Amino acid sequence: TKEQFITQFKKRLSEKYAMGVEDASPTELYNTLGSLMHSAYSSDRHHTWRQYLLNKQKQAYYFSIEFLPGKLMASNLLNMDWLETVEEGLAELGIDLADLTEVEQDMALGNGGLGRLASCFMDSIASCGLPGNGNGIRYEYGLFKQKFIDGHQVELPDDWLSTGNVWEVRKDSKAVDVCFYGQVHLEEDANGKLKPVYKNQQVLRAVPYDTGMIGYKNNIVNNMRLWSVEIPNSEESKYRSLEERRTIEDLTAVLYPDDSNAKGQMTRLAQEYFFVSAGIQSIVRYYHTLKEPIHRIHEYVAIHINDTHPALCIPEFMRIMLDEEGMSWEEAWAVTLKVMSYTNHTIMAEAMEKWPIDMLKQLLPRIYQIIEEIDRRFVEETELKVHDRSIIDRTRIINHNQVHMAHLAIIGSHSINGVAKLHSELLKTVVLHDFYSLYPARFNNKTNGIAERRWLQLANRPLSSVLDKTIGTSWRDNPEDLQQLLNYQDDQKVLNALAAAKRQNKENLAALIKKTQDITVSPDAIFDVQIKRLHAYKRQLLNLMHIIKCYQDIKNNPDSEFYPRVFIFGAKAAPSYAYAKTIIKCINETANLVNNDPDVKDRLKIVFLENYNVSLAEVIIPAADVSEQISLASKEASGTSNMKLMLNGAVTIATLDGANIEIRDAVGEENINIFGITEQEVYDYYESNTYSAVSYFEKDPVIRRVLEAFIDGTIPNIQSEGREVFDSLIRYNDEFFVLRDFESYVKAQEKITECYKDKRKWQKISLINIANAGVFSADETVKRYADDIWQIEPVTEYSSKKG
Ligand code: OX2
């Protein structure tokens, strides 16, 4: 109860800081509340773990090199069913919960969609009562903090642990050793079995930090285990100087902020092996406590490989089965296949990880031997199956002096899934077609989903309360119940209430924009939002070109009617991705020009919010009117901001790409604005090689005028950047067909403006989007993973399923 909470809170504050509420800082209050929560859910966590153990329940382990949880306090309170009590209790003490969550560090151990998906899954797995855990790296520094200086992106370190982390627990007793480098050869042991003998290995200690993943009002608390490197006591004498120690500690120091190019080299490869080896060792150690025979491990353990970064799970698991458990190759391979499954998140060729053979051999000699043997057997087996030998060259793991991680992941997993229908189709028919012909049964689709609790219940309180009043509260447990809102699509009272909620969120965002960027925007304008990593294929440039066109229209005819719009961007560029940084600079300079031009009369505003992250997304998304999902068809595997924006009543403007297609299917053609060429047309262009960007420049005066603005001084301070953009389109023939889609994009944007003017129509479309967003709940997605891929079942109290 509220009274109990107040007593406990004061007591804890006094124990921890010897302070009363009046003297404590927000950080001290935050830590007090965090520690109180932690003590409270720890017993559930222990109980959950005991139940899994007693039931010998099969558990899934989600291996991901990125997790992007954002802040945890509010969502933990919600899931613990403490939120209201705590808010009221704190209020009585004169404390606003928002002031406490304000000081929480945003946990950003990921780049974007891939890491955020992992965290949405963690929430949903626990909330569905499923036995599933995360396994990753505890980076000392998360994704860089972005600043703009003269319109350029500057990266600052994200020292997120400097103020402590109330959610994690260091588990010294669960540390394991991970070995690198050295030499290895095989020797026969007494039983005539080949065993590896190592020389000169580097031994490092992997120490786990566990964070409870709290289920929604179900008392289930799963675990996200993140590993940190240390020098083992036995090795202390080897690392005398500070520099030597530092090179070791570097292993888990930084998240490689590059999710598009395979870079970072040796440290990145070492990171991949580090968390994979530590994770698998700890799983096998746990398995032994069940006292079941090792060849049945697949009945108790499922390991998921989230994109290729953890693909070394396959040879590492083989290594342990062969070298430590004494299995034959055939036995080991049979269980490995049954344990492993793999998700592909992109078809972008440059994101397909490949490692030079020499590097792998040097860093992980035994693992390399095992990969070689997997490859050799794959070739041998496949030769018997196919007529056309060229398929082997295209699918084998080791080729052209490189190790293909996706090939390893596919060959060693029983399930391979894409993340949206179109994406999974393209994997089968184009990108992984050869593999599909070899292993058709392994391929399946699992369309992404989002943690709707975080993205609606927590992020959008005004809308949540309208929903409660209109359709009751069942949608909070069962997002599909949002469908009931469809009964109110012509109810003006409900539409007005939804519009008022949106208004409140827009005012909130406008205040944030004023505070952080000192730009005044009117909540009467259309809030048009594009938030995602900056990448050429996502085509922030197409958005910018449209903005420049609007600006030029106003300049040419200052008194003409122009419906006010605020274009809002949030995006980080990989530090080494020069072109993406160029686009940021161009957007920022255009913003400078447009926002300060008196002719514009505030009808057009551009806001590029600094340091886009999960917490900022939670403020932007509820305030959005328009959701920009404008990647070139075929390139965005799924997208997940598209789902979050839809859930919050934004109307989508989209290409037929990724999950946009499924959003269209859910809301109907009339309630989404589709434009642009299809994936088939994209492939036709590739095939015929007939795309000519310059012809659009020559024949379309609007395109010409917009592009000239990049190089003729119209937009100040972008001499080199403007030229670079111009050249990318005209000299290098516009890799992502921006000019091809420009005209239809502009038309779709004009339609949006017309529609927005018809308030009632707009509100109805917005309502239809909210009502149909339930299908994108990550709860449903993880249930499909649980049933089809992992074969895990929800906890049943004291079930004695396996004796
Ligand atoms: C992203 C994809 O680009 C995005 O389309 C998808 O929604 C998300 O993963 C979650 O599946 N790195 N990030 C991604 O893929 C890779 C590789």
From TrEMBL:
Any one biological process term the GO annotation gives: glycogen catabolic process
E.C. number: 2.4.1.1
- Cofactor(s) it depends on: pyridoxal 5'-phosphate
Tell me the keywords, alphabetical order.
Answer: Allosteric enzyme, Carbohydrate metabolism, Glycosyltransferase, Pyridoxal phosphate, Transferase
Matching InterPro entries: Glycg_phsphrylas, Glyco_trans_35, Pyridoxal_P_attach_site
Give the domain of life. Bacteria
* N6-(pyridoxal phosphate)lysine: residues carrying this PTM: 644
Q: Which reaction does it catalyse?
A: [(1->4)-alpha-D-glucosyl](n) + phosphate = [(1->4)-alpha-D-glucosyl](n-1) + alpha-D-glucose 1-phosphate
One GO cellular component term, please give it. cytoplasm
* Keyword hit for Transferase: yes
**PROSITE patterns in alphabetical order:** PHOSPHORYLASE
The GO molecular function terms of this record are: glycogen phosphorylase activity; pyridoxal phosphate binding
Q: What does this protein do?
A: Allosteric enzyme that catalyzes the rate-limiting step in glycogen catabolism, the phosphorolytic cleavage of glycogen to produce glucose-1-phosphate, and plays a central role in maintaining cellular and organismal glucose homeostasis.
Protein family (similarity comment): Belongs to the glycogen phosphorylase family.
Q: What is this protein called?
A: Alpha-1,4 glucan phosphorylase
